[in-house]
Design a protein that fits this description.
yeast vps74-n-term truncation variant fold, alpha+beta, single chain
Length: 252
């Protein structure tokens, strides 16, 4: 089995940077101030209702896939030549990514099992990051008039709208996105939560078909120049979501 990037020494996790996409080393599509799991959760969050589409198993797979994709893009994990088994690369400085990276074992492991393991632990940590950034707010309320609880509200940072615009353009209008947006679209489509996002991305048969094309790596002329990233995303999406039990009615 051949892995990209540097080799381990003495059985410890690799700490030096790997080859491959690094933040800031390619085009603007790979330079983002919001990690993929944050972006995915923020887009799945509906500020009108305070709910997150796909809560439960679907969200678990989605966040796990997003975490693995971000880690791989930054060289924090290394995949074998078939992108099906993974081991740790250099340590992330980002605390959110570090929590996911800490789950990567020292010996090579399958992408699917790792996506589940990371995803099931990523909901609260990702939400807490969004709360800390002000992208989502949390307000106290009383259930049945006396049970204290909290409800989620939309933030005032404008981050969600900034992320939503190009994703909607790609899915609704067929605009060629950059590689970062294409990655987001592929993850959202694979999550099977696009129909629940109808208020922001009007659901239709065409949106369904475009989403599936992104899952397959058909990203359009603007993004397909990044063959390494598109191949990586296709494999992670295809493997990490292979056993999801979330159901989706086919559009008319």
């Amino acid at each position: 089995m051949v892995f990209t990037g540097p080799q381990r020494k003495g059985g410890n996790k690799v700490t030096e940077p790997t080859a491959g996409p690094q933040p800031g080393s390619t085009d603007d599509a790979l330079r983002a101030d919001v990690t993929l799991p944050e972006a995915v959760m923020l887009l799945l969050f509906d500020p009108r209702t305070g709910t997150i589409a796909g809560e439960g198993q679907s969200l678990m797979y989605t966040l796990g896939g997003a975490m693995l994709t971000e880690l791989a893009m930054r060289g924090h994990i290394e995949l074998d030549e078939r992108n099906r088994r993974v081991r740790a690369g250099h340590v992330p400085e980002d605390s959110l990514l570090r929590g996911a990276w800490d789950r990567v074992p020292q010996t090579a492991t399958g992408v699917r099992g790792l996506a589940i393991d990371i995803g099931v632990r990523s909901r609260d940590s990702t939400l807490n990051r969004l709360l800390a950034r002000g992208d989502i707010r949390q307000e106290p309320r009383r259930l049945l008039g006396f049970i204290p609880t909290r409800t989620l509200k939309g933030g005032d940072t404008g981050t969600r709208d900034r992320l939503l615009g190009p994703v909607r353009s790609a899915l609704v209008d067929g605009v060629d996105p950059d590689a970062r947006v294409a990655t987001l679209v592929a993850l959202l489509s694979a999550s099977k939560s696009l129909p629940a996002m109808d208020a922001d991305i009007p659901w239709s048969g065409e949106v369904y078909k475009r989403g599936k094309r992104f899952e397959r790596g058909d990203w359009g002329a603007k993004a397909t120049s990044n063959v390494i990233l598109s191949t990586l995303v296709v494999q992670i999406v295809g493997t990490a979501f292979a056993t999801t039990v979330a159901t989706l009615a086919q559009p008319d």
